[in-house]
Design goal:
- The structure is a single chain.
- With 181 residues, this protein is α+β, with helices and mostly antiparallel strands.
- It has 2 domains: 54 residues; 122 residues, no CATH class.
- Helices cover 44% and strands 24% of the residues.
- A 3-stranded antiparallel β-sheet has the order 1-6-7, with no helix packed on it. The protein has a 3-stranded antiparallel β-sheet with strand order 5-4-8, with helices on one face. Strands 2-3 form a two-stranded antiparallel sheet.
- A hairpin with a 6-residue loop joins strand 2 and strand 3.
């Protein structure tokens, strides 16, 4: 095979590869648009549902729940050295959890998607994470999905309490997706 024939073959293979990447990207952009529409519809439904909810919780002038004694969620973890149970704050636990569960999506690497995803979630009265929303960079749906997967994989925590009663508590956690040079 001559050098010119090999160059033509390489050019053909590269063109096929580029066309495949474009098809993947176009299909992904359709998913991004569908996700935007679904988020907008969910916000509208949530605002309608929120307007129907009545509550008997004591609130202060700014609308915050009044507690004389409040405790944030936490985890009980076993120390591998001492074999004793220790209390780990939610903030410390989630930092380690994100570090251990983080996987950069292959599609995002292939298409050089990166940025910060802000995940808003609730630790409910049972100590389970409930995702409210995830906001990432433009066309960053795949990064948002990965951030949601990480938060959903949190184990059940000891829930937050207000005057000894379990309560829901809202968190917002940034997760950065940045490729190494």
């Amino acid at each position: 095979m001559s050098t010119q024939d090999r160059l033509k073959e390489l050019a053909r293979v590269k063109k096929e590869y580029d066309e495949q990447k474009k098809k993947e990207w176009d299909a992904y952009l359709v998913r991004v648009e569908e996700s935007k529409i679904a988020k907008q519809q969910k916000k509208q439904a949530d605002s309608i549902e929120k307007s129907k909810i009545t509550t008997t919780v004591v609130k202060d002038d700014l609308g915050f729940t009044k507690c004389t004694s409040q405790e944030l969620p936490y985890y009980k973890v076993k120390n591998y050295i001492t074999k004793l149970e220790e209390i780990n704050t939610f903030d410390n636990y989630i930092r380690k959890h994100i570090y251990n569960k983080f996987r950069y999506p292959e599609f995002a690497m292939d298409h050089e998607l990166q940025g910060r995803v802000m995940v808003h979630f609730i630790i409910d009265k049972e100590g389970n994470p409930q995702i409210k929303e995830a906001n990432g960079p433009k066309n960053g749906l795949i990064l948002e999905e990965e951030a949601i997967r990480i938060i959903k994989s949190l184990p059940t925590a000891i829930p937050a309490t207000c005057d000894g009663k379990p309560i829901n508590i809202m968190y917002a956690i940034p997760i950065n997706f940045q490729m190494q040079e």
